[in-house]
Amino acid sequence: MFQLRSITTIAALAGAAVLFACDSSERMSAPKSPSTGSGQQALVDHSNTQDFPYERTFEHPCRTGETITLHGTSHVITHAVMDGSGGIHLDNHFISDATGIGVPSMDEYTGKADNRDQQELLNITTVVNEDERVQVHGPNPGDNFFFHTMYHVTVNAMGVPTATVDKYDVHCSN
User: Fold this and answer.
1) Considering only CA atoms, which of 106, 78, 102, 114 is closest in space to residue 170?
2) What residue ranges do the domains of the chain occupy?
């Protein structure tokens, strides 16, 4: 009998604690989502890292009769955050290095780039075109040129960003 009263007393105290906790429920909240930086709470936060190795052969854009084979890697980091207002905060970071040899001169060419672009967009699913410019240095200032890579950065309905290469292009930096 004593044991039944103890169990009943414990059950009553537990029930009172639950009722008291439910009465205070407006003070309870869910864990906070990461902020988007604009005061909105992030609903979805995705990053994607991709490497794009390349090897391209083309006519030197600044010197007649010279063909260059350029190779390297572009490291692309895309980060998308969907906020509570239906917008996307997109951060694209492109890090590239390139080396090449000119023929018939056998001149060496090198280039590096570190480009970043941030955008705030209204649509959840979106495609953004990004132009990465790598300045390639030759043996003389007149030999320098730009190697462009055009990327399509897509954010799908789940907020996952991906990049694809659309095209490459070169032009003189003078």
Assistant:
1) 102
2) 42-172
Do 76 and 94 contact (CB within 8 A), yes or no? yes
> Could you tell me the sign of the dihedral formed by the alpha carbons of 5, 7, 11, 14, in that order?
positive
DSSP state of 33: P
| CA gap 84, 52 in Å, rounded | 33
Helical residues (DSSP H) of the chain, grouped into ranges: 2-23
Look up residue 109 and give its amino acid. Y
Strands (E), the chain: 42-59, 67-83, 88-103, 108-121, 126-137, 145-155, 161-172
Place of tokens 């890697």: 73
- Tell me: the pLDDT tens digits for 139-173? 999 999 999 999 999 988 888 899 999 999 999 98
Which residues have a Cβ under 8 Å from the Cβ of 104 and sit 6 or more positions away? 65, 66
Query: Which residue type does 64 have?
Result: T
Structure tokens at 86: 């239906």
CA 62, chain centre distance (Å): 33
pTM above 0.90, yes or no: no
Q: How far apart are CA 21 and CA 75, in angstroms?
A: 51
